[in-house]
Amino acid sequence: MNLISAIDVTAGALNANKTRLDIVAQNIANAQTTRGPNGSAYQRQVVSFETEVLRRGGFGGAALQTVRVGTISTDRTPGQQVHNPQHPDAGPDGQVMMPNVNLSYEMVDLITASRAYEANLSVVKNARQMAMKALEIGK
Known about the structure:
45% of the residues lie in helices and 20% in strands. By secondary structure, the protein is an alpha+beta fold. Strands 1-2 form a two-stranded antiparallel sheet. The chain has a two-stranded antiparallel ribbon with strand order 3-4. A hairpin with an 8-residue loop joins strand 1 (45-55) and strand 2 (64-74). Helix 1 (3-29) packs antiparallel against helix 2 (103-137). The relative contact order is 0.20.
């Protein structure tokens, strides 16, 4: 296996998981934002991944694939309504529409994305160590 190819594949996964971590952090930061730029409560963002073919393998080999961010979409599920007449964004009935961000779910997503990032980083480190050992053997 070509070590440079392994690093190319892992680089795509690292970038995708970095984006996922950024989006999860944005969701957590806006968990209490009741009025965004459009005037309504913040809507949770969701990252979807897709496969990307880097290049075809030679001599009938399999294609070299990685993962990348396919879309970043808005979760349209409604947020919870809370009765708080003193809130500046409360309606005439005293109800405030809260963001549809579930902090427990976001923390699980954060841990999952962090572990995936760490695993891919470990692959890059191991590939680098193997390349260094191969160079030492070749001396």
